[in-house]
Amino acid sequence: MCGILAVLGCTDDSQAKRFIFSQFGYRLRHRGPDWSGIYQHEDNYLAHERLAIVDPDSGDQPLFNEDKTIVVTVNGEIYNHEELRKDLKNHKFRTGSDCDVISHLYEEHGENFVDMLDGVFSFVLLDTKHNSFMVARDAIGVTSLYIGWGLDGSVWISSEMKGLHEDCEHFEVFPPGHLYSSKSGRFKQWYNPPWYNESVPSTPYEPLAVRRAFEDAVTKRLMSDVPFGVLLSGGLDSSLVVSITARHLAGTKAAKRWGSQLHSFCVGLEGSPDVKAGKEVADYLGTVHHEFHFTVQDGIDAIEDVIYHVETYDVTTIRASTPMFLMSRKIKSLGVKMVLSGEGSDEIFGGYLYFHKAPNKQEFHQETCRKIKALHKYDCLRANKATSAFGLEVRIPFLDKEFINTVMSLDPESKMIKPEEGRIEKWVLRRAFDDEERPYLPKHILYRQKEQFSDGVGYSWIDGLKAHAAENVNDKMMSNAAHIFPHNTPLTKEAYYYRMIFERFFPQNSARLTVPGGATVACSTAKAVEWDANWSNNMDPSGRAAIGVHLSDYDGNSKVAVSSPSPKTVEDTPMMMGQGVVIQT
């Protein structure tokens, strides 16, 4: 992911100079170490820190239309740029960059072109002819983006909060699926799919339709002119991404340039569930596998850097960001600039373990809608910023627009977890890739129970964090927490510890308002906590807080996994399936 920074309508010359200084003063240099570009037109400044993935030779930014009256700085990838170029035959492109289509689409369609882009992006477009600008962010918020306002009336845009938090009177998260136009001075929602209003859909489940849609989502993300790899935890989601990538890599342009041998990467404590499962999947698929081990102390030592880069005090995000942050540094040192990852599946399929308690299909579906809408505050934030800290780009096939539309149009009855019918969480995804004739994965991996990333790297990781926090936050500090932190008051010593660090880096009230709060168990929304009265006594984002569901839950209950025969092919599969279904004994 690149870094973008823009100040628009800046009448304060000293602020403009600070902007230029911040651009070349490394606020966002970590995101794009390959090139720094800056453009000024009157009182507007656009800057870009480039991580070159597509067309590294000529795609430096800002980008322009033919007569340079339209200027664009963009972070992201446009996967359908070749198709869009065909529809822009009368235009001349200056580069081979996938993002070069944006200025020309604006010339043709004005501000009404954003939904034509198939990809992830944040961009600022300056129209010098009409002295106007627009800003847009991708549908789900895979790319990070913030907007702020200066006292002089200027509008600030930055990929990260640290790019503007010292210069704006107020700033906030730029909402995903929206654009901001200087012509109206308001936000406009450009992404409004049928599932967004949370009404219950009714499309019957077709396993092969889900399979094809996800394979398309993965293969379009193999667009790269530089070496890339895949993150592999050994869980269902990342393992499917690796399996599909391995199947389709040989025919890509990237393979012709860099070879068809796929590299996979895993991180965890020595002997952790993810490390063991990741190696098994890598051996099965024949990838060149890289295992990175860290100790609890390694993670604790990185916490301050993680909070600075990821820009949050949310407990579960920090827990999961730290191993990813450490792994990203190792991956970049090997010369890899882009990785595919498995985030997003649990939100669209209802894969978190607390979904076992969903009372009906309406509640199940509405919770998935809430989770997708909040992804930019949690997993997307983590994946984007933990990797970008070292100039590494992450791509997330599960959050492909078309794939989300396919899955979210399904009758949620088919997604519901029903142990009595042999249906484990994410059953519809598992079934779609259960192919006896040409297996994508070993059966026990295909039906491995969900592990949240912060759990899968090793259960002692979270336990170690809690112990470290307890050494730094005493009971007296906790008794005054509501007075010190009246907004999103930390309820645990671990949360208090992270909050202290965050406030040191980002002391502004606007900064603390960018971080979500509220009750949660096993990563649920506050609404879903109501599904089980017992959860209110064990409010923790770890999957082990799903008492009565997780094999190693905090309650210490004994559980076994039951399996039933699997059908030979997807086409012959009846409306039930089961391996590794968790039941309590």
From TrEMBL:
Example of a GO biological process term: asparagine biosynthetic process
Site positions per UniProt: Important for beta-aspartyl-AMP intermediate formation: 343
Catalytic residues of the enzyme: 2 (for gatase activity)
Pathway assigned to this chain's UniProt record: Amino-acid biosynthesis; L-asparagine biosynthesis; L-asparagine from L-aspartate (L-Gln route): step 1/1
E.C. designation(s): 6.3.5.4
Positions of L-glutamine binding: 98
Domain Glutamine amidotransferase type-2 residue range list: 2-185
Catalysed reaction equations from the record: L-aspartate + L-glutamine + ATP + H2O = L-asparagine + L-glutamate + AMP + diphosphate + H(+)
Presence of keyword ATP-binding: yes
GO molecular function, a single term: asparagine synthase (glutamine-hydrolyzing) activity
Alphabetized UniProt keyword annotations: Amino-acid biosynthesis, Asparagine biosynthesis, ATP-binding, Glutamine amidotransferase, Ligase, Nucleotide-binding
Gene3D superfamilies: Glutamine Phosphoribosylpyrophosphate, subunit 1, domain 1 (3.60.20.10), HUPs (3.40.50.620)
GO cellular component: cytosol
Residues binding ATP, per UniProt: 231, 267, 341-342
PROSITE patterns: GATASE_TYPE_2
Name this protein carries in UniProt: Asparagine synthetase [glutamine-hydrolyzing]
Originating species: Brassica carinata
